[in-house]
Amino acid sequence: MAKTAKKKKKKTKSAKARKPTVYTCSACGKVTKTRSHLCSPAKTERVYICQYCGISTGDPRHVCAPMVAEMKYTCKNCGRVTPFRGAVCQPKAIK
What we know:
Strand order of the largest sheet: 2-1-3
Structural class: mainly beta
Number of strands: 8
Shape: flat
Largest sheet: 3 strands, antiparallel
Distance between the termini: 80 Å
Order of helices and strands: EEEEEHEEE
């Protein structure tokens, strides 16, 4: 009987997802992907990309007009706003 040799697949290194390098101006707070457009650039450790407007920012509390337009409920206890009724303990519709 002849043996059939199975070819083993080589394991390839998967491409690591790189975080985009983002710089923040320490003077005015502007965020950009290139150092040349800032007067005092500093490398930003954490980058947040807004799912509503697409802007990249170093501020995790970024609020934009498209985000505010989607907010439909507020919590009667703490005042938190959300587009989802189940995300707050005592939802109240925003009119």
